[in-house]
From TrEMBL:
<dbReference type="InterPro" id="IPR007523">
    <property type="entry name" value="NDUFAF3/AAMDC"/>
</dbReference>
<dbReference type="InterPro" id="IPR036748">
    <property type="entry name" value="MTH938-like_sf"/>
</dbReference>
<protein>
    <submittedName>
        <fullName>Adipogenesis associated Mth938 domain containing</fullName>
    </submittedName>
</protein>
<dbReference type="Pfam" id="PF04430">
    <property type="entry name" value="DUF498"/>
</dbReference>
């Protein structure tokens, strides 16, 4: 499975290729995407989460949304299986 490209990003709206949904905030992973309610976890990434992922050999980048989408899509274009959590109003 490949990771879906983020087709567009604007304030409060995100489109993911392969999905008919317009997201405000979303989670994407190889093979899918879904709405993400930032109130589930907040918008800050806890250092314990970053440490856990890195301990398991997963590269982690915490970036401002526009930069994160650019980096995510660049990795997708290279065929890298990548996931992300995006908040379109930050």
């Amino acid at each position: 499975m490949t990771s879906p490209e983020i087709a567009s990003l604007s304030w409060g709206q995100m489109k993911v290729k392969g999905s008919n949904t317009t997201y405000k905030d979303c989670k994407v992973w190889p093979g899918g995407s879904r709405t993400w309610d930032w109130r589930e976890t907040g918008t800050e990434v806890p250092s314990s989460t970053v440490e856990y992922l890195k301990k398991h050999g997963i590269d982690v980048q915490v970036l401002q949304t526009e930069q994160a989408v650019k980096e995510y899509n660049a990795l997708v274009a290279q065929g890298v299986r990548v996931g992300g959590v995006f908040h379109s109003t930050c």
